[in-house]
Design a protein that fits this description.
Helix content: over 70%
Keywords: Antiport, Cell membrane, Membrane, Transmembrane, Transmembrane helix, Transport
Subcellular location: Cell membrane
GO molecular function: antiporter activity
Largest sheet: none
InterPro entries: Na/H_Antiport_NhaC-like_C, NhaC_Na-H+_Antiporter
Organism: Phocaeicola plebeius
Distance between the termini: 33 Å
Radius of gyration: 23 Å
Shape: globular
Length: 481
């Protein structure tokens, strides 16, 4: 005989979220950005245990139901986990194959003092799109641009704002980004459908930001940019810079435009980058392989080590050494682990009826399109503030609103876009968020100093609500009952 499950009240349902916030607060305070290496995952598992204990002891939920919900949640993101692993290999191949170094080499040479801020934003955007990581972009080319900007006399808030705006634009729209993949997978939206739909809010936001940075650059008197020569010379010393390697992003772009499956696209792109490694960067591969092997064995070992694990090549400057370091597939494991643990929490909250109870609180604000999107944005911002982690916020926001959007007849791509507009780009603006702490530490600029100049990050959630208010390119997938 099946016992009818009691539905927990919203107050009880929010208890695990409150516990998670407290655990994350102390974890992040103790570990800082290193919390993603295991501390945050443990917090998620402890909260999952609390959910299961409450559900089984007070609301008649069986462990089998909880386990089944967790398995279903994990199965739903299984393709995303495969994509993340491929991305780890791809980012290493693009770097060591000379694709990213070539893009940076020619990109930084376009910098002119009057156009420094706008160029800074564009360069970081391009690198972030190519690597799929705002963190990597800021920690590498971002540091170099900070040095160049300071040498030209720009205020650090303006420089950091331009860097972060560009880096998070690229992170948001890149098919290689883990947050982009996560937002699309949690909401059951095809990856490239999600990316294309984001352009309606992302492009206006970044265009306005670029206009502001251009005006600010023209109103500034700057000095020389001699550091650029040091940076480009260092890249040329380490890699064979050639336009031939740019065929890799060109082919990748064609595959994306033709709507080829993301896994196939990423695999082909990785394979082409490996060919570039073998043709143009043999010295790099031999250095990665280390002593004890030579000839073809050294190249084969170098490729295996590059794709699977971390590499660190010495360059002329510390910033350049950091830029060309790679993490490979192994570097994605913290993210994979975090997603698995977050899926456990989401499954437990779903099985125990807690997620549904919380969702019902938002129903009163979701009768119209604009209010639905605004409620999603507010929820994403609240979770970013509360959980201090963008990954957890994306997962919880997507899970909470998935049924609401479906019931109201809105496409899943609207939810995935709104989630990214609200969560991904606002995470570096929160001082205690893992992103905010990391970027402030890397750039050595306090979060509240660069916040007013991170125009793209500030405009994105507002643009999401504005586009919903005018109903541009928003259609209903089904008729509302």
């Amino acid at each position: 005989m099946t016992q009818k499950m009691k539905i927990p009240s919203p107050l009880v349902s929010l208890l695990p979220v409150a516990v998670l916030v407290v655990l994350l607060f102390f974890t992040i305070r103790l570990l800082g950005a290193d919390a993603l290496g295991g501390g945050s995952q443990i917090c998620l598992l402890l909260t999952t245990a609390l959910c299961a204990a409450l559900g089984m002891s007070r609301y008649g939920v069986s462990w089998k139901d909880i386990e089944h919900a967790i398995i279903n949640n994990i199965a739903g993101v299984s393709s995303a986990l495969i994509i993340l692993l491929i991305i780890g290999a791809l980012s290493a191949a693009w770097m060591l194959g000379g694709v990213v170094p070539t893009l940076i080499y020619y990109g930084v040479q376009i910098i002119h003092p009057k156009f420094f801020l706008v160029s800074c934003c564009v360069i970081c955007a391009v690198v972030s799109v190519m690597t799929g990581s705002s963190w990597t972009t800021i920690a590498t080319i971002g540091i170099a641009l900070m040095g160049i900007g300071k040498a030209q006399g720009f205020e650090e808030g303006w420089i950091a704002g331009a860097i972060i705006s560009g880096a998070y634009f690229g992170d948001k729209v890149s098919p290689l980004s883990d947050t982009t993949i996560l937002a699309s997978s949690v909401t059951d939206t095809p990856l490239f459908t999600h990316i294309r739909y984001m352009m309606y809010t992302t492009v206006p936001s970044v265009v306005i930001s670029l206009v502001i940075f251009t005006i600010a650059g023209f109103s500034h008197e700057a000095s020389d940019s001699s550091q650029i020569a040091v940076f480009t010379t260092g890249l040329a010393e380490r890699f064979h810079i050639t336009f031939w390697v740019l065929l890799v992003p060109v082919v990748t772009g064609i595959l994306i435009a033709r709507k080829v499956s993301s896994i196939i696209t990423l695999f082909i792109s990785t394979a082409l980058a490996v060919v570039c490694m073998l043709v143009f960067q043999t010295d790099v591969l031999r250095e990665v392989a280390g002593d004890g092997v030579s000839g073809g064995e050294a190249l084969y070992k170098g490729v295996l080590l590059a794709l699977s694990g971390s590499t660190s090549l010495q360059a002329s400057t510390p910033a350049l050494t950091e830029l060309i370091a790679t993490r490979g597939m192994g570097g994605m494991m913290d993210t994979v682990w975090l997603i698995l643990c977050a899926m456990c929490l989401g499954g437990a909250m779903t099985a125990c009826g807690m997620l549904g109870s919380i969702t019902r609180m938002f129903v009163r604000f979701t009768h119209k399109l604009a209010s639905t999107v605004a409620a999603t944005v507010a929820s994403g911002l609240f979770l970013n503030l509360a959980t201090a982690d963008q990954y957890i916020s994306i997962i919880l926001t997507g899970n909470m609103f998935k049924d609401i959007y479906k019931k109201n007849g809105y496409e899943s791509r609207l939810l995935s876009r709104t989630t990214e507009d609200a969560v991904t780009v606002t995470s570096p603006l929160i001082p205690w968020n893992t992103c905010g702490m990391t970027q402030a530490t890397i750039l050595n600029v306090p979060t509240l100093v660069y916040l007013p100049y991170s125009f793209f990050n500030l405009l994105s959630p507002l643009m999401s609500i504005f586009v919903a208010c005018i109903g541009f390119k928003i259609v209903r997938s089904v008729k509302k009952d």
